[in-house]
Design a protein that fits this description.
With 187 residues, this protein is mostly helical. It has 9 helices and 3 strands, in the order H-H-H-E-H-H-E-H-H-E-H-H. It folds into 2 domains: 2-116, Arc Repressor Mutant, subunit A, CATH 1.10.10.10; 121-186. It has a 3-stranded antiparallel sheet.
């Protein structure tokens, strides 16, 4: 799968192979977490690069649309998985790499690098994704309750009983969030 996402044109085969391996790793993780493949591929390609990448760099390395890259970068920045490298910080690094073109670009473009602290990533994911989903779930549960056909007697009672289970699961899930946050701080 990653080999169909990572572009190889004009780049060393060993670099491409490494990027494919890293992107595949993140695609597998994304599949488990329900994260879009394009988001995982963007994070993977940034992770596989020893230097920060610009939008154009990512576009050159991945076979995904510019719209998907733009949206993926937004999502990854929102959850703190990628951070923007400050121009001065990156210009100093580019100078150390003795790359004058990169020094010039560093002052004009945004460059992205992965945030490598798992605890922060997981904490942000819990706060921004899981908690949002749980809040929305409360409204959906109420909508399901309201939608039960009241004129169906025993069937309606059975459906209300089933919804009580869903409400219980929802409540238990909400109770796990603070525990998960506490656990991540101990890590």
């Amino acid at each position: 799968m990653a080999s169909s996402l990572v572009r190889s044109e004009g780049r060393p085969a060993t670099v491409v192979s490494f990027e494919e391996t890293v992107v595949t790793f993140f695609l597998d993780a994304a599949d488990i977490l329900g994260v879009p493949k394009s988001v995982a591929a963007i994070y993977g390609i940034c992770f596989a690069s020893p230097r920060p990448l610009s939008f154009a760099d990512i576009n050159e390395r991945l076979e995904i649309s510019q719209g998907s890259i733009s949206q993926g970068l937004r999502v990854l920045r929102e959850v703190g998985a990628l951070r923007v490298v400050q121009p001065a910080e990156f210009a100093d690094a580019a100078a150390a790499w003795r790359d004058p073109e990169l020094v010039r670009d560093a002052r004009r473009k945004e460059f992205f690098t992965p945030d490598l602290e798992l605890r922060k990533l997981a904490g942000r994911w819990i706060e921004q994704r899981l908690e949002k989903q749980l809040k929305a779930g409360k409204g959906r549960l109420q909508a399901m309750k309201d939608a039960i056909p009241a004129d169906h007697g025993a069937s309606a009672r059975e459906l209300r009983a089933r919804l009580k289970y869903l409400e219980s699961w929802h409540t238990q899930s909400r109770a796990l969030v603070p525990l998960m946050k506490t656990f991540l701080k101990l890590g």
